[in-house]
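Teaching soon. Got one?

===
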Amino acid sequence: MDDSQAGTDSPVSSTGFSENRRTTTRHRDVFTGLCSSGLRFSKDFLMMPPEEKLKYFTINAQDSEDKQRFDACIQDLVRCVALTRLVYGERHLKLAQAHARLAKAYLQFKGWGLQAQEHVIKARDHLPVCSSCRDEKLDVLLCLLSVNLTEGAASLLTDNLEEADSSLLKAEQIVEELHQQDVINQEEKRETRLEISSGLYRVYRRQNRPEEALNQCKKSLQLLKDCNQPEKTCAIYKDMAATEQDRGHMDRAIEHLSKAHAIAMSHNPEGLQGAQISHSLAMILSTAAEPHHNDAAAGQYFKQSLSAYRSSVGLQDPAFLTAQDDFCRFLLINGQQEKCMEIQRASLDSKRAAFGDLSVEVADTLQLIGSVEMTEGQMNQAHRTMTKCLKIQSLLHGPQHKKAKAVQRAVDMLERTTEVVERQQRQARRKKKV
């Protein structure tokens, strides 16, 4: 559901349902010439009546959205609010719709929760108190639906969980009423209810209400039944697994992830979602209560995840590099130091390209490599590695930071070992001869 589509006979609409798109097409045909001719700041345009300018900026906003020029779209929607107020006055449905659409644009395109909430409040203020016209009553309900959906999502962003809960529950009631009045069809109702259930799941999980969170996931699964939307179904099973993991129910979490994994593998085994699910399964199995029983499965899922990440996002993507680091920690725990070191050394160039030479990721990799070199007795190599790490940590955090101090202690200890002392003495003698 996209409320940035055009509305009924008003230039600005708060919802995107199919029967509300017709007049925008007519307006788009009429004003295509204006949009393409650079007329916006010409004398003819400046003399144009406010009603015509409103139609122009409405079409332009939609055109910018279609072309993913989101900043331009928001600028035109701001102009639409001002022009709507000029044309229709205060406390008018069209002004409420204009604010609702701008609120959603701030949230959807920029992720700005506070700005979205500001315009949601204005949309509520400008809604007409009552109307004897049935069509206007239904338009008010459509606007309220958009307002409550936006307010719910914005409140989640700003961590106002009670407001998010209240707004989403109101939206749920409005959806049922609009469907009963034949304003929205079954497909639009289903998609909107999915959006509401997803939002309520996040509210309840963050409020530590796991049973209610899981119930919302079950509602979503029921809505998706026979809809052939594997990606959404996988995402819900992942949410269920995360909730069960929060409660310490690892067997249930593995069960939900396994269902998601089966769907992802049958749909797109080398896709990003399959990579993420395989990664999650590997992590949870590698930390399960029976490690020896799960080690082989965890290793297999790690390899599957890395293969899918490599195919879907590439070797320098942070998601691939994070999964690779998790795999290396798994290898270390299982005594495979050499394989871990080989992977970590090979990953340094990719991490430098992805994050920069002076980055936390490069420093952490050097520290891990240096630590393993120390345990294997490679003191000279460990000293070189740790010295590189210390330079980065000191530049990133300062020499007094706990990370820099920890590496400094390792370097100091290494400098007292026989191998490093002898190497530094040889280097000093060579310098003296030169």
